[in-house]
């Protein structure tokens, strides 16, 4: 072309969680069954919406107004409902004008970073969730700025690392918290959240709390919401129904703006994001209408409780299955539905392999494995080719650690057992060659 079409930051837009699917599909074309552990889609992993929830959605479909536009910021009655629900439980208050709906949180995340000036950086956790880290890095034309989550300390954030990076990097304007965390499954204790809020207050920053998993907590863990700890610091809480109902195909998430009146620049950012939504006219109407209907159903609390109990059991089962494997380390997951397995230092090299009996699969694998590639990605590709299990390398989560993320979603116990056993066999065989 007569000019370059893409700005430099476009190279930072990567999403290995989906990207590895294209490789797995090559094996499917050869007739292999893939055990999908790459993405947090409960429906793909045999999770069923209860009949009462489906009936509620069907009833909404029978109403003509379900098929119209919603307000650009989201349905008035749903925003009123969410504001009242928040304000009844928490200290920090929001009005219906402080809530904006998006076509999933991916849409919200893209818009938040899109309108920041390139020199304004948001520091986030590492291992990072790719949607946040890629969007933030792309807007800045640079690699992500991160603070460390420590696998030796239950994946809790290194607060000294966060403090020093904020103190000595004047470009940082915001701090991202994902609570419960993706990809580690760590749940932030309240006192750690309060310290992060204090850092934001000291350096005049705003906060982004991604709270999409806020009601998926188990194993006796506890935390606090943004509204409970934020005080008078400006911040955005990102929420949605894709993981909780679960209804990922609804593409329905929202942002709650806190304390926007306390800072003119932050208020302008919120208004700009809202203006961008107005240009799009509207977000999806049906799931917005379903939110009050489903959340106010007397069966909803029991549904969430049962969901958490089941994920907690899978978390403990994973610990049981993998506890005797040498060369890896991991923590018991207490929130969301992932676990991050880390390889101990020095156990990976570029000579390790898994046996591939099918020459067609071996030929495909040879095109994936390249000299100098990240060693955890190399393992992930061998695991996919030899055991047909699709996981995601942790080095693609803006991390210097080597490992992989898997899910705790499989509702079919036989499938779960087989998948975990395949991963275990792959680890033992691969690491035996180090």
Description:
With 434 residues, this protein is an alpha/beta fold. The chain folds into 2 domains: 172 residues, Aspartate Aminotransferase, domain 1, CATH 3.90.1150.10; 228 residues, Type I PLP-dependent aspartate aminotransferase-like (Major domain) (Aspartate Aminotransferase, domain 2, 3-Layer(aba) Sandwich), CATH 3.40.640.10. Helices cover 41% and strands 14% of the residues. It is built from 14 helices and 14 strands. The protein has an 8-stranded mixed beta sheet with strand order 2-9-8-7-6-3-4-5, sandwiched between helices. A 4-stranded antiparallel beta sheet has the order 10-11-14-13. Strand 4 and strand 5 form a beta hairpin. Helix 4 runs parallel beside helix 5, helix 6 runs parallel beside helix 7 and helix 12 packs antiparallel against helix 13. The model has no long low-confidence stretch (mean pLDDT 94).
Observed structural traits:
434 residues; Aspartate Aminotransferase, domain 2; four-stranded antiparallel sheet; eight-stranded mixed sheet; Aspartate Aminotransferase, domain 1; globular; alpha/beta; 41% helix
Mind telling me the CATH class of the largest domain?
Alpha Beta
Mean pLDDT, as a whole number? 94
- The CATH architecture of the largest domain can be given as 3-Layer(aba) Sandwich
User: What is the radius of gyration computed over CA atoms, rounded to a whole number of angstroms?
Assistant: 22 Å
- In total, how many beta strands? 14
